[in-house]
Amino acid sequence: MSLFLLPSSLSLSLSPYTFKIMDKRPCNSSQDPEVRKGPWTMEEDLILINYIANHGEGVWNSLAKSAGLKRTGKSCRLRWLNYLHPDVRRGNITPEEQLLIMELHAKWGNR
């Protein structure tokens, strides 16, 4: 019987017939070392908005690369869905919406 050590980022999957070594590194750790993090700039927002206006939403990882953004696909998806999408409403809720929330909470609670 032989023993061998694996680096901490790798794990060994044992099955009766095969040995598989699975890498537990994050998806983008080795692909692009220049992935931008931090706040989005107005230029990046405009690039994303224009790209989606021309090509539509799609596979976010390829969208990020095709648009020329140095962001992950997840970052682009979250930026679009939470901030830039035209259907996202900003500001205070109306008194009618407040009343609806209170009625639904009275009926259903915190489900």
Write up this protein.
The protein is mostly helical and 111 residues long. It has a domain of 72 residues: Arc Repressor Mutant, subunit A, CATH 1.10.10. It has 4 helices and 2 strands; from the N terminus they run E-E-H-H-H-H. Strands 1-2 form a two-stranded antiparallel ribbon. A hairpin with a 4-residue loop joins strand 1 and strand 2. The chain is elongated. The mean pLDDT is 81.
What average pLDDT do the residues reach? 81
Counting DSSP H or I runs of 4 or more residues, the number of helices is 4
Helix-strand topology string: EEHHHH
CATH topology of the domain at 37-108: Arc Repressor Mutant, subunit A
User: Could you say which structural class the secondary elements and strand pairing correspond to?
Assistant: mainly alpha
Rg from Cα: 23 Å
Helix content: 40-55%
CATH fourth-tier homologous superfamily of the domain at 37-108: Homeodomain-like
> In total, how many beta strands?
2
CATH class (first level) name of the domain at 37-108: Mainly Alpha
**How far is the N terminus from the C terminus?**
55 Å
Strand arrangement in the largest pleated sheet: 1-2
Per CATH, the architecture of the domain at 37-108 is Orthogonal Bundle
Shape: elongated
* Oligomeric description of these chains: single chain
Query: Low-confidence runs (pLDDT<50, min 5 residues)?
Result: none
Proportion of residues in β-strands: 5-15%
Largest sheet: 2 strands, antiparallel
Domain Myb-like: 32-84
GO molecular function: DNA-binding transcription factor activity; sequence-specific DNA binding
Domain HTH myb-type: 32-88, 89-111
Keywords: DNA-binding, Nucleus, Repeat, Transcription, Transcription regulation
